[in-house]
Amino acid sequence: MVDPILASIATFANTLTFRDLSAAAVQASKERMLDAIACGIAAHDCDTAAVGRSLAGGASRPEWAGRLLGSKKLAAADAAAFVNTCMIRNLDLNDIIQGGHPSDGLGALLAVAPQVGASGERLITAMVVMYEIIIRLQRAARIREKGWDQGYALGVGLAAALANLMGLGREATLNAIAITGVGNVPMRATRAGQLSMWKGAATAYAVRNAVYGVQLAATGMTGPEAPFSGRHGLTDLISGPIELLPFPPGAAADFFIPTVYIKYWPVAYSLQSVIWAGIELRKRVAADQLASVVVYTYEFSWNESGNEPAKWDPQTRETADHSIPYVLARTLLHGLIDQQAFVPASYLDPAIRPLMNCIDVRVDDGIEQEVQRGIIHLRVIAKDRSGKAHEIDIVNPPGHDKNPFTAKDLAAKFTRLCAPKLGKRRAATALRHWQNIETCAELKPALDALVVKAGLGARG
Q1: Does the predicted model carry a pTM greater than 0.85?
Q2: What is the extent of the structural domain holding 115?
Q3: Residue 377: Cβ within 10 Å count
Q4: What is the pLDDT of residues 338-347, one digit of tens each?
Q5: Residue 435 in domain
Q6: What is the rounded distance in angstroms from the CA atom of residue 172 to the CA atom of residue 285?
Q7: Nearest residue to 128 via CA among 29, 214, 211, 37
Q8: Does a structural domain hold residue 431?
Q9: CA 335: distance to chain centroid?
Q10: How far apart are the C-alpha atoms of 10 and 320, rounded to whole Å?
Q11: Same domain, yes or no, for 26 and 69?
Q12: What are the percentages of helix, strand and coil residues in the chain, rounded to 5?
């Protein structure tokens, strides 16, 4: 049978070129690529990437090698993609849509692109392929709401993007997408209860599998004919009937990549507003004078970050950065959230527990209706010990598509994250490369500018 979803995705992957992209799509791509790279370089030495590097062997053939971000070293492409994505994902600071982090897939594109001789234009085009597919699949299938994790749409979108980047033919593209789609359906247990290192590595695993699926297809492996619409496929087993929004270019379709949110703080996206609310609340009342705090949010945020006992007693870094009561209490005490908030001495501190226990999290039906329209709203109502009420409303925090980062904001974030690993001068050089990546005939100089050198201080 013909699977119309598979055919639509493959056609988009095989036909999109840089000339088809709008100026807004190109600019949005560059911004989110710059953002993801900065997140990755900042987390170069993270534990998940270290585990991945320890297992990253060489490629079976030179053409299947991939470049490790922050290094000149090569490894097998799927292993390099895993390590790169662990880095990008580690700080929980890279971009996000309602349903996942599309820039996680850049870990693979950055590994593979220089090895296939891609230009900056080709890298951007493949990135747009990935984002547009991920967004459409998430919106249509809504599998997160059914208990499945974001790696599914990420893997499918990445397989298509790699097919575009590598110039695969129609049959190989169909097979690559089908193999990845049926072979990788991750469960959302990854993000329940006390969270583990796997929270920051699950999408890296999906990315690794997508790279290997593409390699299999490129080498002649065939895949199921109807992974989405056929018997026992996605719509039969998980999502129910779906219809993807049309792909650009075309008068009836727009690029969605400019709508992807960028984060200011290193926490789950729904907690961005929690931090801004905490900053405003502490201007009005001292933390030790608070009697009660109620956070009103939307259902997903409550379910993900304010609906389990573990969120009032975080025992891991991964739980802490997804805990509304911890993040709000920490902000009320310190005025910001940085990486110091996620060292064990901070989130295990018994002194912060009484303030956390004053915090309640509830779903607000009006806010839930707003989020369905793309409005991110959070309300905090606190009472101090005198009985006085204080209300804070945060709508569309910085990085929302209706409240976007400026070029200056993005440059500052890149420099703040990269300078400790590259030194200020080399961070500035890297920034210039990636701000103009579409003009590069090859990617090696831009990637060389990101090489992390041991012992280099901020003045390097």
Answers
A1: yes
A2: 4-259
A3: 20
A4: 999 999 999 9
A5: no
A6: 61
A7: 29
A8: no
A9: 25
A10: 40
A11: yes
A12: 60, 10, 30
Encoded tokens for 37: 């790279």
Q: What are the tens digits of pLDDT across the range 49-99?
A: 999 999 999 999 988 999 999 999 999 999 999 999 999 999 999 999 988
Query: φ, ψ for residue 112 (rounded to 5)?
Result: -85, -40
| Burial class of residue 286 (count of CB atoms within 10 Å of its CB; 0-12, 13-18, 19+) | exposed
**What are 430's two structure tokens?**
């890297």
For helices 120-141 and 4-15, the axis angle rounded to 10 degrees is 160
Domain CATH for 313: 3.30.1330.120
Centre a 10 Å sphere on the Cβ of residue 61 and count the other Cβ atoms it contains. 10
| 361 membership: H or E segment, kind and range | strand 359-363
Boundary of a domain, candidates 395, 420, 451? 395
| pLDDT tens-digit series, residues 119-139 | 999 999 999 999 999 999 999
Q: Over the stretch 151-207, which tens digit does the pLDDT of each residue have?
A: 999 999 999 999 999 999 999 999 999 999 999 999 999 998 999 999 999 999 999
Give me the torsion for CA of 258, 259, 265, 267, rounded to 10°. Answer: -130
Please, which residues have CB within 8 angstroms of residue 72's CB and are 6 or more apart in sequence? Answer: 448, 451
Which positions ≥6 away from 288 have C-beta within 8 Å?
A: none
